[in-house]
Specification:
alpha+beta; 6-stranded mixed beta sheet; 3-stranded antiparallel beta sheet; 12 helices
Length: about 425
């Protein structure tokens, strides 16, 4: 009715008026208690504010834990290092414990690939480890050979150092084409892959069982020279030259054996008499064993020796190459004595593990030689390989291509002229 008052809730009243005047609503001010209740939504703020205080304590704990772990790791690493070092120093471990005066101390131990795939009894691995190149020959250090009668079968040994220098210069003469270990266009025949190395193993076994005695020192090389078991090659011909003997020394001659090691050869001893006999008449040349320069020249010449059957094979290959390219082949290894090979390998961690006189490495057999190839362009290398493959199919030799620092063609001939039955 007109004039009634309605109360809505606790804080709103409405007065009813009937007439033309517009109705008015009056809203009472909210009671004081409501004002104090409004801060409730922000009540959790103090709890949230307390969280950073606790999280600030965490980083120091993490850092302390990390520091402790680091110290422990370093401590254990140090203990492990000391233990391993002590183990390696104990006698009986590989590479130590050898008596200081034995021959074994002179023989470097070959390091086998720790990842596997290398067999110290396999000849192709053996070959790679023995392809240690000598110091390149310096023609100025080489004496002329002269005085051999023109009627002598050794007359071709009369070669001057000047001719050697000329052949050396011609071999390295600059020409077009990519050179190196694996030049573009290198075409390796299957015969040179190395699969045929089994033939070399078979022939070396035959030589061992047949009583071949490998030269242990230069006196034993001299003995083979006197008996003509091995023949001397001329230091240079039109189609090849010998880059051997560059590491020869001028010190007094010494003997070598696995039992006794190295000992200077004394006048009056059997080995001294062998050397003296050769020095008095080295194919018409005379040398003085007390003269260092003469001793060096004798060593150089003894390193130029070869199996008699190998000589025509090298010449056939070299002549074919010369006819095609008008330059000589560079021969980097012929026959080596065991003590000379050990000298070459003395600073080589991959040197062959010499076990004893029963081992017969290819370059002490007199039946192996190496041809340098890194200075040749690809077409020249391909020509040589094609010729080697042809000669291998004819049963004259076994050849393979060697890679690595001392990349070469390794050639092995059959000492008796017959390929092995494999």
């Amino acid at each position: 009715r007109d004039g009634d008052i309605l109360k809505i809730g606790s804080g709103t009243t409405v007065r009813v008026e009937i007439g033309h005047a517009p109705a008015k609503s009056v809203a009472a001010a909210p009671p004081p208690p409501q004002k104090t209740a409004q801060p409730l939504p922000s009540a959790p703020a103090p709890v949230a504010a307390a969280q950073p205080a606790s999280s600030q304590k965490m980083p120091p704990l993490v850092l302390i834990a990390a520091g402790v772990m680091t110290v422990l790791i370093l401590l254990f690493a140090g203990i492990a290092f000391v233990v391993i070092s002590n183990m390696e120093e104990k006698p009986g471990r590989r590479g130590s414990g050898l008596p200081p005066t034995t021959a074994a101390m002179l023989i470097p131990v070959r390091v086998i690939d720790p990842l596997g795939g290398e067999d110290e009894d396999d000849l192709d691995d053996l070959l790679a480890s023995w392809e240690v190149q000598e110091t390149e020959i310096n023609a100025a250090d080489v004496a002329d050979i002269s005085g051999i009668s023109a009627e002598s079968e050794e007359a071709e040994l009369n070669v001057s150092a000047a001719f050697l220098a000329d052949r050396q210069r011609k071999a390295f003469e600059e020409r077009p084409g990519e050179k190196g270990i694996r030049p573009a266009g290198l075409d390796v025949p299957k015969e040179l892959f190395g699969d045929g190395v089994i033939k070399q193993k078979a022939k070396l076994r035959e030589m061992n069982s047949g009583g071949y005695r490998q030269p242990m020192d230069f006196a034993e090389l001299a003995e083979k020279r006197l008996s003509r078991e091995l023949v001397e090659m001329p230091m240079a011909m039109q189609s090849f030259y010998l880059d051997v003997g560059g590491s020869a020394q001028d010190k007094p001659f010494s003997s070598f054996s696995f039992a006794d090691g190295i000992a200077e050869i004394q006048p009056g001893s059997p080995k001294y008499e062998i050397l003296k006999r050769l020095a008095d008449n080295f194919a018409g040349q005379k040398y003085d064993l007390n003269n260092p320069a003469d001793r060096k020249q004798m060593r150089m010449r003894l390193l130029r020796m070869f199996n008699q059957r190998a000589k025509p094979i090298l010449k056939e290959l070299a002549d074919a190459y010369f006819q095609r390219f008008a330059r000589p082949l560079r021969v980097t290894s012929l026959t080596r004595s065991m003590d000379y090979q050990i000298l070459l390998n003395s600073n080589n961690p991959n040197s062959f593990k010499v076990r004893g006189e029963g081992a017969l490495p290819p370059h002490t057999s007199g039946a192996a030689f190496d041809l340098a190839r890194k200075h040749m362009p690809a077409d020249e290398q391909n020509f040589v390989m094609a010729k080697l493959a042809e000669m291998e199919r004819e049963g004259k030799l076994d050849a393979l291509i060697e890679y690595g620092v001392n990349a070469c063609f390794h050639i092995f001939i059959y000492y008796d002229g017959s390929p092995p039955r494999v």
